[in-house]
Amino acid sequence: MNPAPAPVSPLPGRPLRADARRNRERILKAARAVFADQGLHSQIDDVAKRAKVGVGTVYRHFPTKEALLNALVRERFEEIAGYALEALERDDAWEGFCQLVWRAAERNAADLAFCEAVSSTDCSAIVEDVGLMRSTELLIERAQAQGRMRLDATGEDVPIMMVGAGAVMQMSPTPDAWVRYLTLMLDGLRAS
Q1: Which domain does 109 fall in, by range?
Q2: Cβ neighbours, 10 Å, residue 35
Q3: Is residue 84 in a domain?
Q4: Mean pLDDT within 126-155
């Protein structure tokens, strides 16, 4: 997944018409379901059919399948960034960190395309842009200062860990096998 062209939008300063805004939301809702179920091989025709709009309407909002997928990936990272902000409110940073990782993994387990996309693409710009990297680093720093996380753990460990859990989600015939591996990875980050 390479950086895609920006979705078509109205002229600067002009919001979408109400009907166009509704169509865009229907397209995104349909795409979430289709991509989560079918993965990266999903077809725009399936998204249009589920959204009850024409294929041309989908392409007016998202000029390529990749642009639509990028919008969904960004949306998911924004959601996870919200989890990170909630985790930062906990007094025990290690517990906050674990809460963040588990919530993100549970959400990702239901979305095949997201797991495929993040395992095959450098999403670091999006992660940085939505504030997820900074929040995660703050959690790690606090957990280390509280003596709950290994001192050699870094923010770079987290995406690798999540991609690993995502790979297990994609490949394992047992739907919840990822739980075991994520538990092992978190145990590896815990201070001894």
Answers
A1: 75-189
A2: 25
A3: yes
A4: 97
Residue at 35 is within a domain: no
pLDDT of 173 reads 78
User: Where does the pLDDT of residue 111 fall: very low under 50, low under 70, confident under 90, or very high at 90 and above?
Assistant: confident
What's the token pair of residue 139? 């959690």
Mean pLDDT computed over every residue of the chain: 89
In-domain check, residue 25: no
Q: What is the pLDDT of residues 112-131, one digit of tens each?
A: 888 888 888 889 999 999 99
Q: Which two tokens stand for residue 19?
A: 């009907």
Tokens of 166: 């995502």
In this predicted structure, the answer to whether residue 8 has a pLDDT above a threshold of 60 is no
Residue among 135, 139, 133, 131 nearest 91 (CA): 139
Distance CA 128, CA 133 (A): 5
Q: Is residue 122 in some structural domain?
A: yes
Angstrom CA distances, 177 to 3, 85, 166, 183, stand at: 32, 28, 11, 10
Torsion of CA 127, 134, 186, 148, to 10 degrees: 180
> Which helix (H) or strand (E) is 169 found in, with range?
helix 157-171
Question: Looking at the 3D structure of the chain, how many domains does it have?
Answer: 1
